[in-house]
Write a structure and sequence with these properties.
The chain is mainly alpha-helical. The chain has helices at residues 4-16, 22-32, 53-69, 78-87, 89-94, 128-134, 139-146, 178-190, 210-215, 231-234, 237-246, 251-261, 267-287, and strands at 33-41, 44-49, 98-100, 158-164, 170-176. The strands form 2 sheets. A 3-stranded antiparallel sheet has the order 2-1-3. It has a two-stranded antiparallel ribbon with strand order 4-5.
Length: 288
């Protein structure tokens, strides 16, 4: 039968060997773990193998606990995941009656990219250490600046400022801290500057400007000008992560790059914050 350490290693590597969702994690761990059940008779204990029946009952609880403790797959922190799994009561209770098969995890690697994004001069980044080296910072500093947000209303990486709009209401500005700003600039120059943009895009594109965007409308009988409400906040983290995954970056690196690039407040959070702020501004104006 497996020791607690061996069982924790088998389950942790199985959890990491694919999608970081409860159902997928349990399916892989189920193949790595074969439980046995202990039954008793009068005056004696006997052990009867029952395939994976006992494991099926406690693996989902263990998977949910891991997801709560590690919102993203901790590929770079396997030792921490093993320690967490080993300390869980589910594992301590079932280790003595479980057989395991330890899975060897492959090293993370860049995905093969085909189509218009193939052959871009992008840096190959597969670990946090390589991303930290690209940014000329420590792994600890990178971990703080790029850990995916959860409950993002307040975070020391950003300062939130409110400014009045000419058309009425208020606009929110999310100002990154100087270390995060430098990290974003590195990511822009090393990665995103090499990704081709749509020909119609002129804002924030090197070599283009509002003037270059207006040239195509010169002489037109009708020109329509509009502003998209909460544009940056409407670009969700999964969409941003999809871009980095399409460039070939493995899951861990894509998630960290997303945390660096994505807006802190999403549209629904911004709407909740703007309403009380707008009301207080109106009340202050009435008092004066």
């Amino acid at each position: 039968m497996a020791s607690a350490a061996t069982l924790a290693l088998a389950i942790s590597t199985a959890f990491l060997d694919g999608s970081w969702t409860s159902a997928s994690m349990c399916e892989r761990a189920q193949r790595a773990v074969r439980g046995v059940r202990t039954e008793t008779r009068v005056g004696a204990w006997i052990r009867i193998p029952h395939g994976a029946i006992p494991a099926r009952r406690w693996l989902p609880r263990l998977a949910r606990a891991c997801l709560a403790r590690f919102p993203e797959p901790p590929h770079a922190e396997l030792d921490r995941l093993i320690a967490f799994v080993r300390a869980r009561p589910e594992l301590r209770r079932h280790a003595a009656g479980t057989e395991v098969r330890v899975i060897a995890l492959p090293a993370p690697r860049m995905r093969t990219v085909r189509g218009p994004l193939a052959d871009l001069p992008l840096p190959a980044i597969t670990t946090l250490e390589e991303l930290a080296a690209l940014a000329h910072t420590s792994v600890e500093a990178l971990d703080f600046l790029s850990r995916p947000r959860h409950g993002s209303r307040c975070h020391p990486r950003y300062a939130t400022r409110w400014i009045p709009k000419r058309s009425g209401g208020v606009r929110v500005l999310e100002v990154p801290s100087p270390p995060l700003r430098r990290l974003q600039r590195t990511m822009l120059d090393a990665i995103l500057a090499h990704v081709p943009t749509h020909p119609s895009a002129h804002g924030f594109v090197r070599g283009r400007s509002p003037r270059s965007g207006a040239v195509g409308h010169v002489g037109r009988e009708v020109v329509v000008r509009l502003d998209l409400a909460d544009f940056f906040a409407s670009v969700t983290a999964p969409r941003v992560r999809g871009v980095f995954e399409a460039l070939g970056y493995p899951d861990l690196v894509a998630r960290r790059l997303t945390a660096i690039a994505a807006a802190r407040l999403e549209a629904r959070e911004l709407a909740r914050l703007r309403a009380p702020r707008a009301e207080s501004d109106d009340a202050r104006a009435r008092r004066h």
